[in-house]
Amino acid sequence: MSTIPRPVEANASPALEAARQAERDLWQHYGLEMTESYVVLGTPALRVRSLECGNPRGTPIVFVAGGLGEALGWSSLLARLGDFRCIALDRPGGGLSDGVDFMEVDVRRLAADVLEAVLDAHGLQHACFVANSMGGWWTFQLALRQPKRVTGMIMLGCPAVILDTSAPLPMRLISLPVLGGVLVNVMAPSSPTKARDLPGFLGHPPEVGHGWSESEAEATYRFGNLPDAPRSWTTLLRRFLRLTGSNKRMRITEDELKRITQPTLFVWGKSDPFGSVEAGRRAAALVSNARLEVVGRGHVPWWDEPQKCADLIRNFVGLAP
User: Tens of pLDDT along 86-111?
Assistant: First the structure.
């Protein structure tokens, strides 16, 4: 593993240039100053982008996004946590990290290796993690394999395939080998206006997407149409989902939750389409040092109540060892 600055992208595609500009506009909209670097893994050979903002002397928090893992989704929350040293990454497959065929890799090992490499690259022995959805699944892998490197976890929204939870039907359809390849292209946002429909699909009221700034809608559209996105998204869903639910081999199980010793806060939207509040209660009861807060309506609680989520993070990190 090594760390390099932003690589020189010879003959960068118009799609990549447009995505970078949209992201810069989004950071500017929220008053965020980002430092970008890349972590290079050897096996599999991947470049993983990490971003840092906030107070470099503050308590470090690592943010692991859901979906394909684009860090830009944290923007409204990062803007409220400027007193912390905030580190976010584009998970492999998403954002400006390298694409991945998730059917060809050991995803559990990849998750733990990538998050360890990000900690190492930023000079951290351990940190508290804030995660959403698939990012939550990734964070659990590190907490189980290298528990000393995770001081605490805040799960914003239902972690991917925890217990018997799954995903909405359109995502399960994408997991089908032939149909999925067609659907993933059809469902990609065709414009910034269409990108505003994403929060509604994730269980939020329509006004959430309608209230996005132009830069949020533009960045979501541009990153959803990057060249590596279709293959990475299709194979990720094929690995984790089945038409009737989730892939049992990839679930976060009861036994695994009982092994978690880190302080854990589950923050759950009351209408999260990926898992009911009752699933959140079950998960919190299985972890030895966990509690549940019901915040907002959808799968991304900080889209509904960003300040409430920021306050919960601030209070939790203050209590975490």
Answer: 999 999 999 999 999 999 999 999 99
Q: What is the pLDDT of residue 12?
A: 72
SS3 content of the chain, % helix, strand, coil (to 5): 45, 20, 40
User: pTM of the full predicted structure?
Assistant: 0.96
Residue by residue, DSSP assigns 183-208 as HHHHHS-SSHHHHTTHHHHTT--HHH
**280 exposed, middle or buried (CB, 10 Å; 0-12, 13-18, 19+)?**
buried
**Burial of 316 from C-beta contacts in 10 A (0-12 / 13-18 / 19+):** buried
Task: Please tell me what DSSP assigns to residue 131.
Answer: E
Measuring CA to CA, which residue among 250, 245, 223 is closest to residue 68?
223
Residues in the chain predicted with pLDDT less than 70, given as ranges, are: 1-11, 320-321
Fold of 2-319: Rossmann fold (3.40.50)
The Cα–Cα gap between 150 and 321 comes to: 10
Q: Where are the domains of the chain?
A: 2-319
The letter for the amino acid at 206 is P
Give me the pLDDT at residue 93, please.
97
User: Among 189, 191, 213, 215, which Cα is nearest to 24's?
Assistant: 215
For residues 206-231, one letter each, b for 16 or more C-beta atoms within 10 angstroms of the residue's C-beta and e for the rest, the string is: eebbeebeebbbbbbbbbbbbebbbb
**In one letter, which amino acid is 288?**
S
Q: What is the pLDDT of residue 177?
A: 86
Q: How remote is the C-alpha of 293 from its chain's centroid?
A: 19
The length of the chain in residues reads 321
Residue 318 CB contacts under 8 Å (≥ 6 apart), including other chains: none
